[in-house]
Specification:
329 residues; alpha+beta; N-terminal domain of MutM-like DNA repair proteins; ten-stranded antiparallel beta sheet; two-stranded antiparallel ribbon; 9 helices; 14 strands; 28% helix
């Protein structure tokens, strides 16, 4: 399932390419015909991400709520605008690291993924944006024929966005949108201030629920998924079974601040990079190989990078949990 950084990046794509434009909507699959008809021909006025959910605002107080879920993905084609975070001062395209510096060349991992491909490309190019599937294909015609079961297509004169396999795709009025937004926990990419931190901290510290479950609860905090949960708890040295109310105020606030830090890195680079202070060669290596980006995620049976104890795997909140029994005792 896409985690918060992916949805923020997809929302940026809509902000750059669709906001302020009249949009034609259709449902090639046929499962969103009525909703597409309601929004067809309206102007997209805003695009917002809160955690794993995206909200597109149209004129006449209409909203489209999208939750990609496990299988959802967006395909973008056309004159896609590039993000400033991957262009240096002289206009060369590269890839930022967590220190904000520019690498001269985009770094592809073993799956062919990099942040350049995930955020924009020239005309007649298809960019697929989801957590596990990103590809770059050159096209001969625009707009292209839909690929797969496209729930909804958003089309302007120059850009096309196709949505496939979402968990939710629904038209809302302002009151319904407010209810949906208010159900979600704080998102530090939207608000990293003291009130958001206090909201997160107060909820965690009064819950008897294990912190490993709380971090995956989107009503507690928005955007954290399986990867970030495992990595944040390791970085904090916290046992995932520890009840939230047992944690100190300082420990919970440190978790919030680390989530803000990691989420921002993810939004800027397109990768869930959780290893800090890497030199250039180590950073390039990590960007090429996902196994080098994380402390514990998908490292079950391997020695901990810090203490050498074997990383264990178990199930929590219906997802695989990775942790070190020694560092997180």
């Amino acid at each position: 399932m896409p985690e918060g950084h992916s949805v923020h990046r997809i929302t940026r794509q809509f902000q750059r390419n669709f906001v302020g434009h009249t949009v034609r909507l259709s449902s090639p699959q046929g499962r969103f015909v009525e909703g597409a008809a309601v929004l067809n021909g309206r102007t997209l006025t805003d695009a917002r991400a809160i955690g794993k959910q995206m909200f597109l605002e149209f004129d006449h107080d209409l909203w489209l709520r999208i939750h990609l879920g496990l299988y959802g993905a967006w395909d973008f084609t056309g004159d896609l605008l590039l993000d400033a975070t991957i262009a240096s001062a002289n206009g060369r395209m590269g890839q930022t690291n967590q220190r904000g510096t520019i690498l001269d060349e985009a770094v592809l991992d073993t799956a062919g993924e990099n942040s350049l491909h995930s955020i924009g490309a020239p005309r007649r190019t298809r960019v697929r944006m989801s957590e596990q599937e990103k590809e770059l294909n050159h096209l001969e015609t625009f707009p292209p024929e839909p690929i797969g079961q496209v729930r909804v297509r958003l089309l302007t004169d120059t850009v096309c966005a196709d949505l496939r396999g979402p968990t939710a795709c629904v038209v809302l009025n302002p009151a319904q949108t407010l209810v949906a937004m208010n159900r979600l926990g704080p998102d530090p990419e939207l608000d990293s201030g003291p009130e958001a931190e206090e909201r997160f901290t107060s909820v965690i510290r009064r819950k008897p629920t294990p912190i490993g479950r709380l971090l995956m609860d989107q009503a507690v905090v928005s955007g954290i998924g399986n990867v970030y949960r495992a990595e944040m708890l390791f970085r904090a040295g916290i046992n995932p079974h520890t009840p939230g109310k047992v944690l100190s105020d300082e420990a919970v606030r440190a978790l919030w601040q680390d989530w803000a830090h990691l989420l921002h890195i993810g939004v800027e680079t397109g990768q869930m990079m959780t290893m800090d202070d890497l030199g250039r060669s180590d950073y390039v290596s990590a960007m090429k190989n996902r196994a080098d980006r994380h402390w514990v995620y998908k490292r079950e049976g391997l020695p901990c990078r810090v203490c050498g104890t074997h990383i264990v795997i178990e199930e929590m909140s219906a997802r695989k949990l990775y942790w070190c029994p020694s560092c997180q005792a």
